[in-house]
Model the fold of this input.
Amino acid sequence: MQRKKAFQFTVLILGVCAIGSGIVLQPYNDSWHKLLIAVGFVFLSFSIPFIVVRIYLGTHPNKMENSAIKQGDERRTVIHEKASAKAADIGQWFILVVVIASLIAKVSSWVIYLSIALFCIQSIIKIIFVYKYNREM
Done:
């Protein structure tokens, strides 16, 4: 628990530093400052919800107890894994739609190649996990 908390605060600090660096670099370089600001906001959006939930649960001990019980529930874990798998399947089809739309819109070729690479990487990861879980069963 403490490691997760420390990690989230580290990500929060990295996000703030990236946004600050992007603002400082704005007059000097047009492309890097946008990238740094975007990465900073991604880090912030990743860490702030976790920190807010931890603060809320810290002030309400009975809800923290219920949360700990729910996290250990096997049924909840199975439901969460099924939902994640379905979301990954939908994401894979969404990437395919983006590739087709990019082809139709005649977007630059690197965007199309990047989208195709993401689709292939996601497919390979899916195959690896299917193989791994079949071996475990």
User: Anything to note?
Assistant: Residues 74-105 form the longest helix (32 residues). The CA atoms of residues 42 and 86 lie 24 Å apart.
